[in-house]
Amino acid sequence: MTDQATKPANHLIEIKEYGQSIWMDNLTRDMIQSGELKQLIENGGICGITSNPAIFEKAIKGNAIYDADIEAGIKAELPTYQIYESLIFDDIRHACDILRPVYEASNGLDGYVSIEVPPTIADDTEATIKEAKRYYQEIGRENVMIKIPGTKAGLPAVEQVIAEGINVNVTLLFSVESYVETAWAYIRGLEKRVSEGKDISNIASVASFFLSRIDSNIDQRIDDKLAQGIDDISLQAKLEAVKGKVAIANAKIAYQKYKEIFSSDRWQALAEKGGKIQRLLWASTSTKDPKYSDVMYVDELIGPDTVNTLPPNTIEACADHCNVDNRIETDLEEAYKLIESLKNPEINIDINEVMDELLVEGIDKFVKPFESLMQSLEEKVKYLSPV
């Protein structure tokens, strides 16, 4: 019989024992000021924070908690964009300070807060480098991580920003190939820094590999095929068998690439100089289809040297009923077979096309809330401005 006194009260804390860190995909000023964030970090198993424009839109839009700072910005005659930055930079600094003990206790493994450069510059390398450097300097916290999308323009920026000693969270990775390119961009950035005789031991990076959006896209394609009417029962079964399985299979294959890259001689040379591995971070982990387990993107991808970033609803669900075990390398052969089966003429789903589509959509899902937030802030500035 299990001794209830020794059983973790929260499965998120249990996950840490398997070498995975749980970060929260959410940040609001309410959480900071109420002490909820501190509580989640001290007792709830949370050891990092990720944010994005959609999160800030939800946090700021229609929330009076920011009004005093907006009014201060109006009095200082700041443009709306600078008021926006003053609000989010303030929240990021406070979150970094709350997570500082985690950062120190983990020797810089955890305790990070991620903030994304403006999504409107995702295709501009130079602008991304400039903004990443400015964000890092203005926020002024060692444990801030600058989020840069893993686009063709983003990866050269990742390399340069790492070379300048800035922590980077590479976001919007969908394909295994884009992950591999990201890992090498990180390595090249560290190598450049070493060649300049600079320290690399205090630089951290994660590669944010997205999950649920892949299944949503592929499941929709399968549903469209099934809706056309299929007489062959075995073909119908083959199509149904793919649903809800591709994202996890894809992530498991990415993890194998991670192991390969970070056991290479090229990496070992950096590790000897204090280089920290770039961990894979599982993102987009809330289940979109109610038919699936609400913790499937947690349970199936627990394993060493990984991070899983969870929105609040998934945090609650996982704390309650995650089935914790090291599964990152289970069913590998099936994972490869499943991805290969998509090429089968009967299934005929081009995974590269899916990934390209998701990257474009992903940027759009950050640009739209960013623009919406700017518009609502503009309206609030007008409303709060003295006549």
Topology (elements, then pairings):
Elements: H1 11-16, E1 20-24, H2 29-34, H3 36-43, E2 46-50, H4 53-60, H5 67-75, H6 80-105, E3 112-116, H7 125-139, E4 144-149, H8 154-163, E5 168-173, H9 176-195, E6 205-210, H10 212-227, H11 233-242, H12 246-261, H13 265-271, E7 279-283, H14 296-299, E8 306-310, H15 312-321, H16 332-341, H17 351-384
Parallel strand pairs: 1-2, 1-8, 2-3, 3-4, 4-5, 5-6, 6-7, 7-8
Helix pairs in contact: 4-17, 5-6, 7-8, 8-9, 9-12, 10-11, 12-16
Describe the protein's architecture and organization.
- This protein has 387 residues and is an alpha/beta fold.
- It has one domain: Aldolase class I (TIM Barrel, Alpha-Beta Barrel).
- Helices cover 56% and strands 11% of the residues.
- It has helices at residues 11-16, 29-34, 36-43, 53-60, 67-75, 80-105, 125-139, 154-163, 176-195, 212-227, 233-242, 246-261, 265-271, 296-299, 312-321, 332-341, 351-384; strands spanning 20-24, 46-50, 112-116, 144-149, 168-173, 205-210, 279-283, 306-310.
- It has an eight-stranded parallel beta barrel with strand order 1-2-3-4-5-6-7-8, surrounded by nine helices.
- Strand 7 (279-283), helix 14 and strand 8 (306-310) form a beta-alpha-beta unit.
- Helix 10 runs antiparallel to helix 11 (233-242) and helix 12 crosses helix 16.
- The model is unreliable at 1-5 (pLDDT under 50).
- The active site is at 147 (schiff-base intermediate with substrate).
- Transaldolase is important for the balance of metabolites in the pentose-phosphate pathway.
- It catalyses: D-sedoheptulose 7-phosphate + D-glyceraldehyde 3-phosphate = D-erythrose 4-phosphate + beta-D-fructose 6-phosphate.
- Its EC number is 2.2.1.2.
- Its main location: cytoplasm.
